[in-house]
Amino acid sequence: MAFGKPATSAFVAGEDFVSAKWFSGATLNYAENLLKTKGPDVALIAHREGSERIELSWDDLREQTAAVSSFLREQGVQPGQRIAAIMPNVAETVIAMLAVSSIGAVWSSCSPDFGAGGILDRFSQIEPVWLFAANGYQYNGKQIDSTSLVAEVVDALPSLEGVICTPVLTDVAAVQYAKPTYGIGELVDAYRGYELRFSHFSFDHPLVIAYSSGTTGLPKPIIHRAGGVLLQHLKEHQLQTDIKAGDRFFFFTTCGWMMWNWLVSGLASGATIVLYDGSPFADQGNVLLDLIERESIRIFGVGAKYLQTLQKQGLSPKQGRDLSSLDTLLSTGSPLTDESYDFVYTHFKTDIHLASISGGTDILSCFVGGVPSLPVRRGEIQAPGLGMDVQIWSSEGQQVFDEQGELVCCLPFPTVPLGFWGDDSGERFYKAYFSEFDGVWCQSDFSIQYPHGGIRILGRSDAVLNPGGVRIGTAEIYRQVDTVPGIMDSVVVGLPFNDDVQIILFVVMAEHVDLTSGVTETLRSAIRDGATPRHVPKLIIRAPDIPRTLSGKVAEKAVLNALQGQVVTNSDALANAESLLFFAAQRHEIVDQLSHV
């Protein structure tokens, strides 16, 4: 890490997680650490569905960042002010974030596939002074014009002083919004050659505001500190993922997911980051796999659902491709099934480092993840993160092994958030993470740890099923469902009924495959044999679609709310909110079926 001033102490314990101090007296700038490499070598490669490849050298990236930063400084942007973005995963988004961070302003982004309501639920809480926005994006062969969306957001944010636009779609007319509007390309040309300046701040200076998914309430605006994010990402990249200078590093993500921040931080290790924006299954499902060979990617990251879909579609990544550059495959977003481990080692490479990692927007980093020097065990995350006092606790607050419990972190770590924006008393923040076990961070991940150190995530604690008073992680059921041919997707919930909880499983069938009594019995047998009889659903129902958040996670709580006739207060956080209509319509029929089972 590059510091403006050295620290007077590395760590001073406080009364709690928040008051603990890291690197007191040190000053630094996050963007400076990401842009310390200079020269003509490639820093960033950007691909968009249906568009040409873009490549920026380290000098290009520094020059364009300097231009945008100089404009913002000239407009009076101050450290601590919030800068928002409605942007796809393109080079201009990275440039904008680096420019904002170089000043010490606070970055906060949403991807343009959010609805206006979802964006305003987030940005209205933080009162941004400038907005970066694209005019649209392409997904699955369709071009989506975002100008009306941006106009609605601009009109609803009185704090805004101006808008900086990126013309991603060339056939969409330029728009002058209700605030002064500039094109990012014009700014780069006008300020080309300006000095790249970095303002230095404390380790705890706010860097980014990220948001909880908000499927059951207003999204929580989580404030992350610059030094903590930088230090944690360097550790996770260099020590736990073995990222080196010059490596090609890719992760499929949008700018509304914390993994975008994690990917961009790869610049701090001197890696070339590879961006992609669009459908991960474009070109008959080959687009991301072809990138591995085309860009000689060494570290390739995707969501667990992506790997499951490849498997279900019968795609073999190694067939017809040179994957010799690929050393590490990262997976996150949801638990990686045992069968996905088999798929990776059969259809990618036999000697690959498969690292399932898990953390969250809450810490903008990982609690558990890969270790290149340890063996990979089927179905397990390899180990807790270095320096993270991660344990699995029983409901009585005792550490347990080979038993299901809550994933906790018992000691402070550098990416403990500064808090929630607007939560001056800290009450909401304490309730979110420390109310389950006083003074100990509870991540609300239902998990199990084995004596050798490996960890299996069983699902979110707030979605844990509780039939007959026995806690069951949803991942235990999904793991068995995924073994049954013809099932493309699923969601399981625990529906309160007659003073108990009944497990209801909804499945999406492959095209031309019916949910017959034979398939239903196969599902029940797979779950009974692979888990326990308590895991077997009371009802199995075919659904047309499964609601997921914009980062691809199954929205179990939203489904449960819909089944119970409750309002899902932030459906804009879902990629396919219309799918909830099916579940809401099933409410009375399901109750009737349960009454006769």
> Mind describing the biggest β-sheet?
7 strands, mixed
What percent of the residues sit in helical stretches (DSSP H or I)?
A: 25-40%
Which structural class matches the secondary elements?
alpha/beta
Largest beta sheet: what is the strand line-up?
6-5-18-17-19-20-21
Uncertain stretches of 5 or more adjacent residues = none
What is the number of helical segments per DSSP (H or I, 4+ residues)?
18
Mean pLDDT: 93
What is the C-alpha radius of gyration, as a whole number of Å? 24 Å
Task: State the shape.
Answer: globular
CATH superfamily of the domain at 30-37 and 49-222, by name, is: ANL, N-terminal domain
**How much of the residues is beta strand, in percent?**
25-35%
Could you say what the CATH topology of the domain at 30-37 and 49-222 is called? Rossmann fold
- Report the count of strand segments: 32
Main CATH class of the domain at 30-37 and 49-222: Alpha Beta
How far is the N terminus from the C terminus? 62 Å
Quaternary status of these chains?
single chain
CATH architecture of the domain at 30-37 and 49-222: 3-Layer(aba) Sandwich
Structure write-up:
This protein has 597 residues and is an alpha/beta fold. Among the domains are: 30-37 and 49-222, ANL, N-terminal domain (Rossmann fold), CATH 3.40.50.12780; 464-596, GMP Synthetase, Chain A, domain 3, CATH 3.30.300. 28% of the residues lie in helices and 26% in strands. It is built from 18 helices and 32 strands. The strands form nine sheets. A seven-stranded mixed beta sheet has the order 6-5-18-17-19-20-21, with helices on both faces. A five-stranded parallel beta sheet has the order 8-7-9-12-13, with helices on both faces. A four-stranded antiparallel beta sheet has the order 25-26-28-29. Strand 19, helix 11 (304-312) and strand 20 (328-332) form a beta-alpha-beta unit. Helix 4 (116-126) packs parallel to helix 5 (147-156) and helix 14 (474-481) crosses helix 15 (517-530). The longest helix has 17 residues, at 58-74. The protein is globular.
